[in-house]
Amino acid sequence: MNISKDPETPETLLHDGSDDNDGLPLYEDVQVALPEVLALPSPMATPDDVRIYLLRLLMEKRRLHLDRARHVASKWVRGNGQDLVEYSPQVYYGIFGHEDGWMVYKEVHLFRRQEAQENLMRTSPYPAL
Predict the structure, then answer these.
(1) Among 48, 87, 107, 110, which is least packed, fewest CB within 10 Å?
(2) Is 13 a domain residue?
(3) What pLDDT does residue 67 have?
(4) 68 lies in some domain
(5) CA pair distance 100, 93, nearest whole angstrom
(6) CA 62 – CA 102 distance, rounded (Å)
(7) How far is Cα 122 from Cα 129, in angstroms, rounded to an integer?
(8) SS (HEC) of the chain
């Protein structure tokens, strides 16, 4: 399969073309359309969907370089979208290591809280104070 070198495609976000990947899965054949607005993956989201979400979250919220964000996100191998929000900090540490584990856990849960507050504000029958 030909992979576009366009920096905006999911394929180039998940794989940089190098052979040095620390033995971690970097899936070249993934075909995923990136949503324009970053949103928490659905509970049934695949590991690929979660990795793309983590990649974008780390780049947009933590301003990590693409290579670093790709390296961190690639450590998410099996969990689905439900696991992303239910795993404890200790599980995140086991997946990503202590420093990256805390960063990913914190960003996911801050984003989740912010998204919940925005949804509440949109659906509330009362005006904001």
Answers:
(1) 110
(2) no
(3) 94
(4) yes
(5) 7
(6) 12
(7) 14
(8) CCCCCCCCCHHHHHCCCCCCCCCCCCCCCCCCCCCCCCCCCCCCCCHHHHHHHHHHHHHHHCCCCHHHHHHHHCCCCCCCHHHHHHCCHHHHHHHHCHHHHHHHHHHHHHHHHHHHHHHHHHHCCCCCC
Structural domain contains residue 90: yes
Q: Give the pLDDT of the chain (129 residues) as one tens digit per residue.
A: 444 445 555 555 555 555 555 666 665 655 555 557 889 999 999 999 999 999 999 999 999 999 999 999 999 999 999 999 999 999 999 999 999 999 999 999 999 999 888 888 888 777 656
Contact 87, 79 (CB under 8 A): yes
